[in-house]
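Researcher: Structure prediction, please.
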Amino acid sequence: MTAFRSRTTAPLRTAAPFVIRAERASDVPAREALLDACFGDNRHERTCQRLRDGRAPAAGLALSAVRSGTLVGTLRLWHVSAGGRDALMLGPLAVAADARSLGVGAALMNAALMIAASRGHGAVILLGDAPYYARFGFSVETTSELELPGAFEHARLLGLELVAGALDGACGMILATGARERKARRSRKERMVSCAA
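Model: Predicted structure follows.
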């Protein structure tokens, strides 16, 4: 009688459909194109964008989702004062149309909230669709007395306390407080050309 040995094979490794990582400078052109595709040409005129203008995102809280070497998602958080309370403002969150069924948005949200909590941030505020963001714990309960410097719908101003009571008593205007964005230094050749012009 011949004994047949079944060969044990290692399970096939299936590559993750995407990777979440810290945003890199090389992501910027693809990020801007993705934001234009998702939010349109007028995205720079929106209320929350006005808060972000000229500001750097919070340290470690600019994330990219990459699939097969292509940027398919982006999320950033920014320092704000929420009626006198330190908080982060989330946005924009954008996912490429061909990657929306992969869970990229949820993965970016979960990663950002985990990082924010681990860095000791107390609260996150955003302007978005309540049904989508409710699954992450966001609600209007903590933001009902807050305002934005521009037009917005109160039902879309949502908050999440990472630390209980972080938004207690938050009342008034949400204002940008983060570090100013550093301008890229021009090369010596660029400076010479602009001086000669």
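Model: Confidence is low (pLDDT under 50) at residues 1-13, 190-197.
Researcher: Thanks, that helps.
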